[in-house]
Amino acid sequence: MGSGKMNATTAMMWKRLRLTLEMIKFEHSVFALPFALTGALLAIREGGDSYRAVAGKLIWICVAMVGARSAAMAFNRLVDADIDARNPRTEMRHLPRKLLSRSFAWAFVGGSSLVFVIAAAALNPLCLHLAPIALALVFSYSFTKRFTSFSHLVLGFCLGVAPAAAWIAVRGSLDLRILWLTAAVTFWTAGFDVIYSCQDYEFDSTEGLFSIPRCLGIAGALWVARGLHALMVVCLLALIHDLHLGLLALAGVGAILVLLIYEHSLVKPNDFSRVDAAFFTMNGYVSVLFFLFWAADILLFKPGV
Question: Does position 291 have pLDDT exceeding 70, yes or no?
C-alpha cells in the first residue's frame, strides 16, 4: 500500500513536471543557447585557452542558461495567468486551464532559480555575484508590457546578455567587444517578438497593455521588426571586424540574412496564419545555423590566419 502511494505520488510529480516543461516551451531553449555557446567559444579563443581545459565550464553554462530561462518562463506564466485567461489566443495555456497549480509553478520557479545559482557558483565568483541581478532582469520583463512599449527590447536584452554572461563565465571578466553580440541578440529577439505580438493587437488595445503593434499599428510594427533585424546584421558584422573573424562567420551572417528575409515574407499586416512558422521554426534555424557557421570559424581558424 505504501509502495503504491509512493508510486502514484512519483507519477503525479513527473506528470506535473512534464506539463510545466510544456508550459514554458522547454524546447525553445535552443533560441538563446547557441549564442551563449558562441560567446563562450569566442572567450576561449581570445584567451588562448585549451577547449578541453574549459569543457566543464561549457556544461555549466548550458545548465545556467536552461535554469535561468526555465525560471523566467514559469515566472512569466504565473504573472500573466489572469491576462492569459482573458486572451482568446492564450486562454488554453496550462495555468488558465488549471492543468497545473500555481503552487507547483512557483516551486518550479524556485527550483530552476536554485539550479541557475548553483551553476553560476560552479563557474566563478563573479558569475555568482551577478546571478541575483541576472534573475531580477529576466523576471522584470514580465511586468514591462503593463507600462512600456519597449517591452520587446527588454525581452531581447534578457536573451542578449547570454553571450556576455558566457564570456564572463569563461574569462572571469567582461570584454566590451562581446557586447556587439549582446546587441545583435537583443535586436533579433525584439524583432521577432514584435512580429509575434502583432497577433495580440486588438487584445492589447482592449486591455490597455503596451506593445509596438498597439503603438504604431500592425504595418508600422512590421517595419520596426525589419529595422531591428537589420540592426542585428550590422552588429554581427561589427563583431566580425572587431574580433577578426573569417569568411565562415561572414557566410553565417549571410545565411541569417536570407532566413530573416524569408521570415518576414511569411507575415503580412492582414495575414498571420504562418506566424508560428516565422516565430518558432525560422528563429530556431537562425540560432542553430549561426552557431554552426561561427563555431566552425572559431574552431578552424586562428586570429590573423
Answer: yes
Alpha-carbon distance of 223 to 220, in angstroms, equals 5
Domain extent listing, the chain: 29-300
CA distance 225 to 112: 31
> Which residues, at least 6 apart from 292, have a Cβ–Cβ distance to it below 8 Å?
252
> Which pLDDT tens digit goes with each residue over 170-198?
999 999 999 999 999 999 999 999 999 99
Contact 249, 293 (CB under 8 A): yes
Nearest to 298 by CA among 235, 232, 252: 252
Q: Specify the fold of 29-300.
A: Tetracycline Repressor; domain 2 (1.10.357)
SS3 state at 56: helix
Residue 117 near residue 37 (C-beta atoms within 8 A): no
**Contacts for 88-93: CB closer than 8 Å, 24+ residues apart:** 88/203, 89/199, 89/200, 89/203, 93/23
**Which residue from 120, 101, 7 is spatially nearest to 62, judged by alpha carbons?**
120
